[in-house]
Amino acid sequence: MSTRTLAVVSAGLGKPSTTRMLADRIAEATAAALGETGEQVETVTVDLRDHARALADATVTGFPAGGLRAALEAVAAADGLVAVTPVFNASYSGLFKMFFDVLERGALEGVPVALGATGGTGRHSLAVDYAMRPLFAYLRANAMPTGVYAASEDWGGAGGDAALTERAARLGRELAAAIAGRAPARPADPFDEPVVPFEDLLAGR
User: Fold this and answer.
1) How far is CA 98 from the centre of its chain?
2) pLDDT digits (tens, 9 = 90+) for 136-171
3) Using one digit for the tens of pLDDT, what is the confidence trace for 95-139?
4) Which of 27, 51, 65, 183 holds its CA 20 to 30 A away from the CA of 159?
5) For the chain, how many structural domains are there in total?
6) A Pfam family name for this chain (predicted)?
């Protein structure tokens, strides 16, 4: 039985946050679906609100440090990603964009990604498709066909929560299938290069 790493990036600002709640729901569905295939799952959650100041510094300096660096490395090393943002002014939040701006180039290439968004009204439900998908296409990630948007009425309304759970479960199954069909991620080892014998170096070979 292999272990897969699932990174969860939540750009919610509040505590509690519906953005984090949606991210957790998708992650739990993904882990459950992977468990059915015999895969173990290690989940690493990144709350961007905890890195807001560090993200601003990294955007200016180009050098992420401390906890932000660890979060970026965890996302880059994951086998799959759940990315959820609140919708502000008809698009993803600035905090969400800043995180993926400072992520190392190529880190998400080919990585299966589940996209989700939250907002106060259903009018922004297409933000996943017209705002988030182009971003992750540019990053060369493998975004899942299903995207989940949750408006305020989706939480605890008459039948609304059950419908949201089903949408999250469908997305989780898609992400699990994509992760299971992909070779496990392995962090790059700077020392994992063939050793050139010293006599060859001297001979210029």
Assistant:
1) 14
2) 999 999 999 999 999 988 887 655 588 999 999 999
3) 999 999 999 999 999 999 999 999 998 888 999 999 999 999 999
4) 27
5) 1
6) FMN_red
* Residue whose C-alpha is closest to residue 8's, from 68, 82, 76, 77: 82
For 164-185, b/e burial (b = at least 16 CB within 10 A) is beebbbbbbbbbbbbbbeeeeb
Q: Angle 52-61/94-102 helices, nearest 10 degrees?
A: 50
CA dist 116 and 68 (Å) reads 22
DSSP calls for 123-172: GGTTHIIIIIHHHHHHTT-EEEEEEEEEEGGGTTSTTHHHHHHHHHHHHH
State which residues form the domain around 190.
3-202
CATH code for the domain in which residue 174 is found: 3.40.50.360
Q: Global pTM?
A: 0.86
